[in-house]
What we know:
Layout: H1 3-25, H2 34-43, H3 45-62, H4 71-86, H5 93-118, H6 128-136, H7 141-170, H8 173-179
Helix pairs in contact: 1-2, 1-3, 2-3, 2-4, 2-7, 3-4, 4-5, 5-7, 6-7
Amino acid sequence: MSVRTSLVIAFTALNVTIGGLVAWLKLPIYLDSTGIVLASLLLGWRAGVSCAVLTCLIGFFVVNPYLPFFTGTAIVIALVVDQLRRRNMYRSPLLTVVSALLLACAAALASAPVAAFVFGGVTTSGSDLITAFFRATGQSLMDSVMLSQLTSEPVDKLIVTLVSISVVRALPKSFLAQHGLRGHEDLRGPISPQEDL
């Protein structure tokens, strides 16, 4: 088994573990995309998408049976992270925060319609309480779900992004070079097309 494959599996396990813990604690955030962000940063969008799909499929059995319906959101996260990286958006702390907020908006836009129209705003996650609050204020179902997502996602994606960037920057150069991974220096500029092959 290659290092790349092993890392995708490890990042998937990380997502499922964190996702299960957060679901059990009923927190109003998710944190289960940390592995997807790490895979996209270190290995490219294909690995990020693979991690996203595996997370949602395995998560069906051990985290939340609704998770496969949000596979599209997980894929969007992988693709957006890769595009932000290609545009040199992680080169400074301020831009990293901006990137996290952009990622949060993309995730919210992708997941809100599913949560609203497929599940009626109830997905058994901690954010359901936020949705219920907005519903109680007289907002429509779709507006309530969107406002809930826009409330929880920025915090979630800021934590996920900062943790992921810190991990990537902390990895030894020798380890990155040995296994052909993208390191913290790569975060300061565009990557070559060959890196995603």
